[in-house]
Specification:
By secondary structure, the protein is mainly α. Helices cover 71% and strands 0% of the residues. Helix 2 packs parallel to helix 5.
Length: 99
């Protein structure tokens, strides 16, 4: 999963990031899906979201923006971790945990 392997790399050219409120709303929805056990629906979103937030981390201007992006990134990794763990991929969940 490139979203997990490239978490510390510079952003790639084809990605763009949205204003922080848009991913925040998406992460809140993903959290609701995770808590409801809707893993099939949840599964498609985290990779693209992780890539977008990784880009935002590299391009955030100022401490406040960076802090917001890191908070969103942590929430996205938490969702991905929960998904991997619940689907029985303990090794992947552990890898995500280290991010």
């Amino acid at each position: 999963m490139p979203a997990l392997r490239g978490y510390d790399l510079d952003p790639v050219d084809h990605l763009t990031s949205r204003p922080a409120e848009e991913p925040r709303t998406e992460i809140e929805q993903l959290g609701r899906l995770r808590r409801a056990g809707r893993y099939a629906t949840l599964g498609a979103a985290p990779p693209a979201l992780l890539e977008e937030l990784t880009l935002a981390r590299h391009t955030a201007a100022g401490d406040r923006d960076r802090e917001q992006v890191f908070g969103l990134l942590v929430a996205a990794f938490y969702t991905a971790h929960g998904l991997a763990y619940r689907l029985g991929y303990a090794d992947l969940a552990e890898s995500i945990e280290h991010r």
